[in-house]
Amino acid sequence: MTIRVLLSAIFLALAAPALAQAEEFLPLTTPVELATGEPDYEVGDLIFRGGVEIAPDKANIGGISGLDWWDGQLYAVADDGRWLVLTPEDVQGRLVDVSLVRIGNLLDEKGNKLGGKARSDAEAITRQPTGEWLVAFEQDHRISQYAALGGPATDTGARDDLGAAVELMRTAKPNGGLETLAIGENTLIACGEWAGTERPNCVHASMGGVFPFNLPAPEGIAEFGGVPTDAACKPDDTCYVLFRSYTPGVGNHAAIVALPLDGEPQTLAILAPPLLLDNFEGLAVREEAGRTFLYLVSDDNFRNCDGGQRAGCQRTLLMKFEVKGTAPPPGAPTVIAAAPATKATERPGTRPFPEATSVGVVLTTEMGDITIALETERAPVTARNFLRYVDEKRFDATVFYRAMRLDREPRPNGLLQGGTQFDPKRILPGIAHEPTSQTGLTHTHGALSMAMGEPGSANGDFSIMIEDQTGLDADPSASDPVWHNGYAVFGYVTEGMDVVAAIHASAIAPDKGEGWMKGEMLAKPVRIISARRAPSPPPPAE
């Protein structure tokens, strides 16, 4: 894992839709840069926004040849007949890790694992607006439909566009077939793995019909034998096509071409040495708050460099780019869009030890009440410290001032922070640290956790978790003292998570805050009117 090294206030969580016959695990990753020492390197109309190298790991991750973005995750296929789901982790809009991989076998119409290289060589994946997945295969050139990955293949039906795409492959070489397949709201693009011939290499379909056409490799990669290798389409039916090439002694090249629904192709970028490149074969597009991001993934052909460089070895690189014109001005902080609360968000926190002694506290804010159960038995030092602030009215007229929003599903996601903000008239001396490995408590949805710089420095600032943030728990195996001890959980919200979510969705002041907190500070902090012990429940009737 790399995310802890990069930013000590951000964390990992595991979240992915249920898929059949899948193995899931936390992968081994290493951060990479497109250009060394230039984190926001610009090439053409693209801005590099982070990347990682993914190790083969126990599942032998590799051979990734197609990519698609849906519902906060990256869906991929590999040329050994497997599907993958990757959960990317962003910090301030930059890709810094992959926190979960799910992987399983693509199946045939009878629900059996695909047998042999000729049947299992998956090269492209795209999700239809109706929810089914389409997977393109080469060698045995075909397109299969899946109602769910991990389930059996189903018939694609009598579709002229898919029929034309398969027909395009009729005379294709076994290892040079349908590499590129993408669907928008009203369009389809499919390309074979060739270019520069009189024979059409692509099919474009829209409401106006189905048209074979030639999409040439752009200058800068054409001379190296560039061919289409994946595509992705936005809801407005603008599609992007990825070209790749490899030349011995020269290395890898890649190019991205934009295809508007009405208009000529536009080359967005040519990626060439000495940039960090590999055999890029997968492309996905993501739109977020009016910005457009492209993800590239490389196929290591199961000759991974993990364990040391050697002749002919390759890597699985996952990189994120932002399309220029959709990005904020240089140096501007990244503000992740607010998300409204859902019924799931409004659920109360769950106490791991409901029978343990606790004390109730009500935070009355200008947006509503938040009721907390302080874990006085499980975390006595931290809970009693919080109670002292309550009893001495040190929280009265303080504020919730920070909304850290995580760029992942489910939304909203992150934490809300408030308290004394180191006001010397309010704060008390720091307290002894109570790690979650000692208390048994955890940073699940609705948990309260002490803010701190290092263990033993917590005083009068605290955070409330929105969705599970268990990466903030103590990790006894970590060498860094902060992560070895984690943050101290001391209570859970029992009522008022809707209020927490509403405050979390308040407007952000982009220029407030310092360092990694810039872009997370509320434009108008929400006042905590008072903090009081909750009335004791009446005794049971005799």
Q: Secondary structure elements and their pairing?
A:
Elements: H1 3-6, E1 23-25, E2 29-32, E3 42-43, E4 46-54, E5 64-70, E6 73-78, E7 82-91, E8 94-105, H2 117-120, E9 122-127, E10 133-137, E11 142-146, E12 153-154, H3 160-168, E13 178-183, E14 188-192, E15 202-206, E16 209-213, E17 227-233, E18 239-247, E19 251-259, E20 266-271, E21 280-288, E22 291-298, E23 316-323, E24 359-365, E25 368-374, H4 380-391, E26 398-405, E27 414-419, H5 436-439, E28 447-450, E29 461-466, H6 481-485, E30 489-495, H7 497-504, E31 521-533
Antiparallel strand pairs: 1-8, 2-4, 3-4, 4-23, 5-6, 6-7, 7-8, 9-10, 10-11, 11-12, 13-14, 14-15, 15-16, 17-18, 18-19, 19-20, 21-22, 22-23, 24-25, 24-31, 25-30, 26-27, 26-31, 27-29, 28-29, 28-30
Describe, in short, the structure shown.
This protein has 542 residues and is mainly beta.
What does this 3D model show about the protein?
- GO terms for molecular function: peptidyl-prolyl cis-trans isomerase activity.
- This is peptidylprolyl isomerase.
- InterPro entries: Cyclophilin-like_dom_sf (IPR029000), Cyclophilin-type_PPIase_dom (IPR002130), E_coli_cyclophilin_A-like (IPR044665), Phytase-like_dom (IPR027372).
- Pfam families: Phytase-like (PF13449), Pro_isomerase (PF00160).
- Keywords: Isomerase, Rotamase, Signal.
- The protein is mainly beta and 542 residues long.
- The protein has 2 domains: 23-323, Tachylectin-2, Chain A; 358-533, Beta Barrel (Cyclophilin), CATH 2.40.100.10.
- The chain has 7 helices and 31 strands.
- It has helices at residues 3-6, 117-120, 160-168, 380-391, 436-439, 481-485, 497-504, and strands at residues 23-25, 29-32, 42-43, 46-54, 64-70, 73-78, 82-91, 94-105, 122-127, 133-137, 142-146, 153-154, 178-183, 188-192, 202-206, 209-213, 227-233, 239-247, 251-259, 266-271, 280-288, 291-298, 316-323, 359-365, 368-374, 398-405, 414-419, 447-450, 461-466, 489-495, 521-533.
- An 8-stranded antiparallel beta barrel has the order 24-25-30-28-29-27-26-31. Strands 2, 3, 4, 21, 22 and 23 form a 6-stranded antiparallel sheet that branches.
- A hairpin with a 3-residue loop joins strand 18 (239-247) and strand 19.
- The longest helix is centred in the last third of the chain and has 12 residues, at 380-391.
- The radius of gyration is 26 Å and the shape is elongated.
- Mean pLDDT is 89; it is low at 1-20.
